[in-house]
Amino acid sequence: MAKWSRVAVRAPWILLVILSLIGAAQGVSVAARNGGFTRRDLASVLDPAAAATVNFIRPGLNFSIVSVTITGQTVAVHFKVTDASGVPLDRLGVNTAGTVSTSFVIGYIPTAQASAQTIPVYNNYFLNTVTSVDGKTTGTQATSASGGTYTSTADGDYVYTFSKLLPVGFDQTVTHTVAMYGSRSLTSFGLLTYYANTEYSFVPNGSKVTVTRQIVQNAACNQCHDPLSAHGGSRQDVALCILCHEPQTVDPNTGNNLDFTVMIHSIHMGSSLPTVVAGGKYQVIGFNNSVSDFSGVVFPQYVGTCKVCHQGAPQSGVYLTNPSRRACGACHNDVNFATGLNHVNLPESDDSQCTQCHIPKGVNEFDASITGAHVNPMFSSQLPGSTFKLISATGAAGKSPTVVFSVTDAKGNAIPLSTMSSLSLVLSGPTADYGVLQNGTAAYLSESVLTAATASGSNWTYTFKGAVPAGATGSYAVGIEGYKNITINPGTVISQVVRDAGMSQVAYFSVDGTPVAPRRVVVTEANCDTCHGTLNAHGGFRRNVQYCLLCHNANGTDAPTRPAAQAPNETIHFKEMIHKIHNSANLVGNYTIYGFGGSVNNFNSILYPGNTQDCVKCHATGTDQVPLPNGVLPTQTARQWITPTTQPMTAACTACHDDKATAAHALGNTSSVLGESCDVCHSASGAYAVNTVHIP
């Protein structure tokens, strides 16, 4: 998506001029939503009634196709162009602001693909021949229809006539689809570039459309992609993508087929593709010979969870009923269907026999059925389940806290601690911000309770060996984590040991008699799970964002695992770590954490699929704003520009904006006596409010 123009960011008076022009300066609320715009778009502050009276700077872009006619071999598309309020736009940008670009694509579904046993796939009418970089190989690629003519009777009402003709004798009895896409830039007015896509399906002979391809919908993609966009941002509809990314389109440089089914499966498998694991790469050579390398893509949840993408669309279940070599071979790309290699020595010349083995659901998990073959072992029905409950936690400053807890299976039956493989309690505090040093070294306490807890009825009681720091005030937190190793499919060749992990729980208690105050919620589990499915880390048994914070606190670093020769230590503070991981592709510096067993975890190659400026994708309402609450601690940042610690607001912002200039700016606006002054400019009412400068 286009970003704010440099002028708009550096000259906030432009916003005031715009607002005064439209009479919307009164009662402006940056939290408002207007015409579908988010608060990160200046358009969200426009008053609808006032904005409607000024034709020139109304934001937004919408396309609608009224009809498509084919005369002989000539295609003509009647379409309308409007702004977000439905008011017609002049595509030339004379009578209304912003030139509107438009492009058109047309494809059809061949008759042979209209049967129930075949998933419909488009063919595009217009193909280009593309030559590889070395000049040795050619391939075809679908393209848009360019060079046509426009006619108009009024602003917003147009007919586009294709310059290219359809082939003689084209099939007029099958489904045809015309898609259009384009953009409208209002960046010179301090607004954004707006994009629009739309599609129109019809049968040329006038028959009803009965054969369609609606397997994946935009909403499924936008769970992570925020929003899905490609080729500069103007292609945002799956229904548009599939008209060009169909079997005719190939990359002559790599030989990869760019059919949507093949390409999307392969991209999302990325680093897990068998050929990539074996040392190869999955790349696409695109426009101007740009190289897009997807070999490092790590799908944010279990990659076999097909329903993450296949949901909500009319045909989203076809992966269960219509398996194909194209779809399955895109992920299992070491299978040779012609020879049977890696396919239990069974050659397949076509897709007709796939359903004989690959039925939707079989009797057992991990069988050849489509559902069975894609079971996540962590959620196998063979696992009895582990459920933790923190019943009470009590303690005082300078004393060892006592915790009462229970451990049961999914049916509520008590699990003997002696059968658990791992079970620990973690103490951290205060809840104003975790990280007060324990015993001068550790930023939290973690103690195993497997053999030290005592039974009290159906519950267990444990008193920490360590203590709450002397002089501590406020509230502290206790968390629980653990798992039981379970062998699933015992006695078979697919037997494996799985950690049956419980959802980590957190309980709070007062250490000085004041009311218990839980830790503030900055990020919700639901927000993480939108992309991650079920967020988990460290072998799958740390599950719960509020639990992660106990260890990943302001004073947390990788000191326990980083070799002395690699000093200084790196911060593992949650806000630093998560910002850096999700913004890794844009970082100036290196972000590497040493983990368990000395593992080296470099996050600079992470490809975040969303918009890194969309803070509310992860943050709970209002928690991406400054100033921060009282009591928030500085972060240990020995490897950053500002050492040895960075103040709280600066730490959050410089986690993403990690260049020296930004660090110098923040440091120059921080007093050793009075602290940070970030909120003067970056608070919700500031000239450079967080939600103003973070524009998608």
In short:
The protein is of the alpha+beta class and 696 residues long. It is built from 18 helices and 27 strands.
Describe this structure in words.
This protein has 696 residues and is an alpha+beta fold. The chain is built from 18 helices and 27 strands. The strands form nine sheets. Strands 15, 16, 19, 20 and 21 form a five-stranded antiparallel beta sheet that branches. It is globular. 16% of the residues lie in helices and 22% in strands. Residues 1-34 have low confidence and may be disordered. Helix 14 (574-582) runs parallel beside helix 15 (648-656).
Features:
696 residues; alpha+beta; 5-stranded antiparallel beta sheet; 16% helix; disordered N terminus
Q: Report the mean per-residue pLDDT as an integer.
A: 90
Largest sheet: 5 strands, antiparallel
Number of strand elements = 27
Structural class based on helices, strands and sheet pairing: alpha+beta
Based on CA atoms alone, the radius of gyration comes out at 29 Å
Q: Identify low-pLDDT runs.
A: 1-34
Helix content: 10-25%
Shape: globular
The separation of the N and C termini measures: 6 Å
Strand content: 15-25%
| Number of DSSP helical runs | 18
SSE blueprint and pairings:
Layout: H1 6-10, H2 13-21, H3 48-51, E1 62-71, E2 74-82, E3 100-108, E4 123-124, E5 127-131, E6 138-142, E7 149-154, E8 157-161, E9 176-185, E10 193-202, H4 218-221, H5 238-244, H6 260-269, H7 274-277, E11 283-285, E12 291-293, H8 318-321, H9 325-331, H10 354-357, H11 370-373, E13 387-394, E14 402-408, E15 422-428, E16 445-448, E17 454-456, E18 459-463, E19 475-488, E20 496-501, E21 505-510, H12 525-532, H13 545-551, H14 574-582, E22 592-594, E23 600-602, E24 635-636, E25 645-646, H15 648-656, H16 660-668, E26 670-671, E27 675-676, H17 679-682, H18 690-693
Antiparallel strand pairs: 1-2, 2-8, 3-4, 3-9, 5-6, 7-8, 9-10, 11-12, 13-14, 14-18, 15-16, 15-19, 17-18, 19-20, 19-21, 22-23, 24-25, 26-27
Helix pairs in contact: 6-9, 14-15
